[in-house]
Amino acid sequence: MTYTTSTDKFDRTARALHWISAAVILWAMLSGFYMALFEVDSTTKRTLSTFNVSLTFVYFPLFLWRLVHRITCTPPTQLEQLSLRHANLACAAHKFIYLLTTIVMCSGVLMMQRSFCVFGLFTVPPLLSNTSLQDVFARMHVLSNVLLLSMITLHIVAVIKHQLDGRAILQRML
Q1: Which CATH code is given to the segment(s) 3-173?
Q2: Predicted confidence (pLDDT) at residue 5 exceeds the cutoff of 50
Q3: CA angle, corner 128, sides to 125 and 130, nearest 5?
């Protein structure tokens, strides 16, 4: 692996998909944890749940685009100040974030016990009718969300640490 300067950036598509993903995933995850951990009135919970399901359902094709783009497009070269070990750890962490996001989104759809309407445009029926299997996917959804939140937190902390250490990681995605 060749190391060059930190001036290389991800292309516009990668940057746009990254920030759209960050907004959607953080919103859905944080509002979901809010509803799960705090006393929320039923109207607010129904409104947030309906919005989150619609948002993440519409986001799914963008996420697939992001995966395909990441696989098919060459990312910028690694920072010269980043050791091979750290570069490999970062690569593994990003792949794990992609995997967890895929699991969260798929388990979210597979755990649905009722039809859901996507922004009032169309209705999606439950994909599974077996409640035991839906419960398995519901547990998988919770666990993968906790893991994803942990990985995203680690990602943000790593970016901050590298920035404070003088490595221009964030500028590559701006």
Answers
A1: 1.20.950.20
A2: no
A3: 135
